[in-house]
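Milestone 3.1: sequence recovery, worked example.
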């Protein structure tokens, strides 16, 4: 699909239907001439399941070839997790003309800077950046539980197994540990983990995300364990000097490997607390105008900190949006407030990464665990709410090797079901791993010695319709 010409998804013929029509038409022509009848009759008689298997194989092969040809590999990932599940109809997959029971208060839509892509009017700034991201409007898994859907979206594995699998961030930490040597932890979550499961999974505590706590929009971003409330830098330095004077335990043992490792860890900790590592979180180093551009709110400043961490080489950063999207009630008021912050912060992040030539090597993806029901619940006690909806929803991806200005798949006319080209969690995460040079079939160190891999295969019950070759 072209990056600057996106056809109307509601009117186009699906790829499967186009293939079927093409096969039937060609078979008819050749049958009339007596040529190739058996071959094309066999093609025309394929079941939808057979066609889907062939399409998946073709997509996987094309995606791998395209990724291999790319000169830039994903170095860092910024994940924006909209915990609770953001409505797709009210945001990035609008459905004009579906009426008040589906649109509610949000019946205005705006064009973007890419022909054919339309957004809700709640996203005016994102509309100006549409050439930098792509929308997957056919994301699906059918799971309507917060914990289980979040697990699916952040691990790519079916919930309910013997042990919890690690999240994408933990996988990045595991596979990038020999490449990343920075002071900051390799997997950082702002402000607190919100996956509703153990992000490190069976990989263990070494791969647990570092949760910053604090608030980057406060006068001082008090990062947990790095910047302590009520203790300024001068006092911190004095404490360090005092400890150095009275700590004689390691004197004369510098050559002992265990003592050398302990000293290295201590120096790294001090580098975080008092050195260049800590400075990443100091937003006073940024121009006030840029901070204003991101938005003087917690989410906007989180996006700015994420950009600074990417510049420092941190492999994986998660922003847990500071406000839930589980809008069973009070939906429209919550959306007006939170979409304004999401629009400003995310649009500025994409533009800033692009202006600094970081977007090609930084993959940004934004989603909740599912979408929300297209039909509004006006009856009490909801009084205008939307509920959990895992049948179809929208994911935004940008940078890191993904094309911008495209739409993958489509939902039906009301946004209730997948209409064209389903995308499952394994397809999305597999594409992210592919662009980062991580083998989705690689083995993981399982504590029970089981054959655990980065992603399960379809034989192990994981649905897949193929990697996202359309936007690689």
């Amino acid at each position: 699909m072209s990056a600057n010409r996106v056809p109307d998804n509601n009117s186009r013929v699906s790829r499967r239907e186009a293939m079927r029509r093409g096969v039937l038409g060609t078979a008819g022509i050749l049958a009339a001439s007596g040529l190739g009848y058996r071959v094309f009759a066999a093609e025309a008689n394929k079941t939808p399941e057979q066609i889907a298997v062939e399409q998946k194989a073709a997509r996987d092969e094309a995606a791998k070839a395209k990724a291999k040809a790319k000169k830039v590999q994903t170095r860092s990932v910024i994940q924006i997790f909209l915990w609770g599940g953001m409505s797709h109809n009210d945001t990035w997959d609008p459905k004009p003309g579906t009426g008040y029971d589906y649109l509610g208060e949000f019946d205005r839509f705006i064009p973007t800077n890419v022909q054919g892509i339309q957004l809700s009017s709640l996203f005016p700034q994102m509309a100006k950046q549409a050439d930098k991201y792509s929308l997957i409007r056919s994301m699906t898994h059918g799971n309507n539980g917060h914990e289980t859907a979040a697990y699916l979206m952040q691990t790519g594995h079916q919930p309910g197994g013997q042990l919890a699998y690690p999240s994408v961030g933990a996988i990045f930490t595991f596979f990038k540990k020999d490449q990343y040597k920075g002071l900051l932890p390799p997997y950082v979550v702002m402000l607190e983990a919100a996956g509703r499961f153990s992000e490190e999974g069976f990989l263990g505590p070494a791969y647990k995300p570092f949760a910053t706590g604090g608030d980057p929009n406060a006068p001082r971003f008090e990062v947990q364990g790095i910047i302590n409330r009520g203790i300024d830098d001068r006092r911190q330095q004095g404490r360090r000097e005092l400890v150095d004077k009275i700590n004689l335990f390691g004197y004369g043992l510098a050559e002992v490997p265990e003592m050398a490792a302990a000293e290295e860890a201590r120096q790294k900790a001090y580098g975080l607390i008092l050195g260049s590592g800590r400075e990443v979180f100091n937003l006073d180093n940024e121009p006030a105008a840029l901070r204003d551009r991101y938005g003087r709110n917690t989410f906007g400043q989180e996006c700015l900190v994420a950009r600074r961490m990417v510049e420092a080489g941190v492999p994986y950063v998660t922003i847990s949006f500071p406000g839930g999207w589980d809008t069973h009630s009070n939906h429209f008021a919550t959306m007006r407030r939170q979409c304004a912050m999401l629009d400003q912060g995310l649009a500025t992040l994409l533009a800033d990464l692009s202006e600094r030539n970081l977007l090609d090597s930084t993959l940004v993806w934004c989603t909740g665990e599912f979408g929300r029901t297209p039909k509004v619940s006006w009856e009490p006690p909801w009084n205008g709410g939307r509920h959990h909806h895992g049948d179809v929803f929208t994911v935004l991806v940008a940078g890191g090797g993904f094309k911008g200005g495209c739409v993958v798949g489509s939902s039906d006319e009301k946004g209730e079901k997948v209409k064209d080209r389903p995308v499952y969690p394994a397809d999305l995460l597999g594409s992210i791993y592919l662009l980062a040079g991580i083998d989705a079939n690689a083995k993981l160190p399982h504590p029970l010695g089981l054959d655990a891999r980065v992603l399960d295969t379809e034989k192990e019950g994981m649905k897949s319709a193929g990697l996202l070759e359309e936007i690689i």
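Residues 1-5, 7-13, 15-39 have pLDDT under 50 and may be disordered. The longest strand covers residues 133-139.
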